[in-house]
Specification:
single chain; 16 strands; three-stranded mixed beta sheet
Length: 383
Amino acid sequence: MTAPTPTPTPATSRWLDLGLLLKEKVEPIDWLIDGVLPSGTVGDVFGGPGTGKSSVILSLALTVAAGGGTWFGKKVAGGRVMILGGEKSARKIWVTDLNRCAAGMNIEIEAQRIIAPDGSVGSIWQWMRDGWQTGPGFDYAVEEAKKFGPTLTIIDTIGRGALGQDPIDIPQQQMLANLLEKFRERVGGTVLTISHTNQASGKDTLRNRLRYESRAGGNGLPGHLRWLLAMTPVRPEESAIWRGVEVEDDAAMEAHEMRSLVAVSVAKHNEMPRPKNGWSNHQPLILEMMEDGSLMSLGYTSAATLEIDAQTVAERKAAKRSEGRQKKKSRWSKPRKPTSSAEDTHEAGRRAVLEAPDVFGDEYDESATRSNPQAQEDDDGRF
């Protein structure tokens, strides 16, 4: 007997009928950054120390707070911005960094469009022996968000927002990712954290440095989140040929090494199509951090080409060093001395012995001596 087919019952509100969803039309993505960052995302921006992560994200925050516009060639939606746990130690630092970042942006921001705590309010979460606990900054942020309504919330850095977090503790980081998603449900909008990359990845190729696996604890928080943005310095040898620098010119290379170039790429994009026209690890956006702290876009370029150029520059430098060593060696090497008279005398004596007449006469039979060891022993007494 076959078991009777159970009568279908209406699904509860906690379950989705995927068959019915298949009949619905696909809605267009609501973008915060067109083609780069969907609205409502929980994401992470990572890179090594000094790569300009905070500066790049602050410039995005200013663009959003100014009502939107164009940000490095991409359309950006406008809205309010809330920054938590910032690495700014005082109001004076905020004034400096805001003006430095806004240089060249030509923007005006009204009051109550971008806010940050006036002083430390504590961490949002704290890691205790029995797991994550909400810190003093959690309620402060949630209550402010209810009144403020941020379109974008930035936690700079995740190490300050989540006190005691260990990037290589995978279970801990996965729980932290769940907390971030619940936090976004409370504050609304898009939530971005800023974190540091694995230092060992700095020796890798450019394309691999822009992969999300290069972030510290790749299987923890990065593996759980749906969107990540990678930033890495572009080494001088990677960009020299691309920027038209004469590699053999020491002065030109030294000047080029003083420039600060950064590659930017969407490292993970689970809920959106692959970025087009750049913003990928194969064709990253290249930014230059100017002396005044402002950011200038140098456009997109092929990461593979930069890697090949780096090898070419290394080979040229090696050839130049080898040439320099050869010149130095030839400059200090001494000419070879002529053959000494002692050597000439030795050679003449050797030839004289070889050409000497047979002193044993006809009675000496060399072949007999060689075939008869006893004869040789009797003849010269030593065998």
